[in-house]
Amino acid sequence: MNGLDELRGDGRMIWSEAEQGWVAAPEEIVPQAVVFITVDGASLSDDASIPGSDPHRDDGGEA
Asked: According to the 3-state scheme, what is the secondary structure of the chain?
């Protein structure tokens, strides 16, 4: 079962007639979506949000 199926199965994502689509709390969806975001071929990780972290400088790229 993938993440979205799990949300639907657990009742944390529901169909909304008014919205004509699936509805869930953003904090339920974002962690599932992040695994699909890549930067230079690598999955986005929490260390990218550390203040002072410069991914270009840290891995030898242009400053």
From this structure: CCHHHHHHHCCCEEEECCCCEEEECHHHHHHHHHCCCEECCEECCHHHHCCCCCHHHHCCCCC
**How much is the CA Rg of the chain, to the nearest whole Å?**
17
* Cα 1–Cα 32–Cα 6 angle in degrees, nearest 5: 30
pLDDT tens digits, residue range 45-62? 555 455 555 555 555 555
> Quick one: pLDDT at residue 15?
94
CB count in 10 Å sphere of residue 13: 20
Q: Give the CB-side neighbour count of residue 49, counting CA atoms within 13 A.
A: 4
